[in-house]
């Protein structure tokens, strides 16, 4: 997904914007930079997905910054209503002042959030016990280590497109 960089002239405004973004609970990795050179260094050394900045950074204009950025890095330019924004493929803009929901929508449009909670499934104690029993059975019958038994169940799960719990249940039912 990539980190977010915020670059605003006043540190307190950058901190306030960072806290506003974090308060929605979707993005945690937010870095504050003051100079364009600092941003470019971060882009080279880290997985940066989005830069939120104003037209004039301390050491360069945003147009110069955008020219140095890889196309994968998106930019949200914070502008005044009267300012005209030069078009660039990876640049969008948000007119100040803005509401929190406008900012979050703008970020989601350029940097979709992939929930970690969706990847991590909650298992009931009974389901976990079933998995542990299936691993124990495999370890005993096939003379495997615990990690090997886990990978064995995992492979069957992926090959059959069944959940880990379903594979464990099937192993226990078939071997009674």
How are the secondary structure elements laid out?
Blueprint: E1 3-7, H1 11-23, E2 30-32, H2 36-45, E3 48-54, H3 62-68, E4 74-79, E5 91-95, H4 100-110, H5 116-119, H6 125-142, H7 146-160, H8 164-174
Parallel strand pairs: 1-2, 1-3, 3-4, 4-5
Please tell me about this protein's structure.
The protein is α/β, with parallel strands linked by helices and 176 residues long. It has 2 domains: 3-116, Response regulator (Rossmann fold), CATH 3.40.50; 121-174, Winged helix-like DNA-binding domain superfamily/Winged helix DNA-binding domain (Arc Repressor Mutant, subunit A, Orthogonal Bundle). Helix content is 51%, strand content 15%. It is built from 8 helices and 5 strands, in the order βαβαβαββααααα. The chain has a 5-stranded parallel sheet with strand order 2-1-3-4-5, with helices on both faces. α6 packs across α8 (164-174). The radius of gyration is 24 Å and the shape is elongated. The two termini are 44 Å apart.
CATH class of the largest domain: Alpha Beta
CATH architecture label name of the largest domain: 3-Layer(aba) Sandwich
Structural class: alpha/beta
| Topology, number of strands | 5
Strand order of the largest sheet: 2-1-3-4-5
Largest sheet, strands/sense/barrel: 5 strands, parallel
Q: If you consult CATH, what is the topology of the largest domain?
A: Rossmann fold
Return the average pLDDT rounded to an integer: 83
| Beta-strand content | 5-15%
Report the principal-axis shape: elongated
Instruction: Look at the structure and name the CATH superfamily of the largest domain.
Output: Response regulator
How far apart the termini lie comes to 44 Å
Uncertain regions: pLDDT < 50 for 5+ in a row?
Answer: 115-120
Helix content: 40-55%
Write down the secondary-structure element order. Answer: EHEHEHEEHHHHH
CA-based gyration radius = 24 Å
Can you count the helices?
8
Compute the number of structural domains: 2
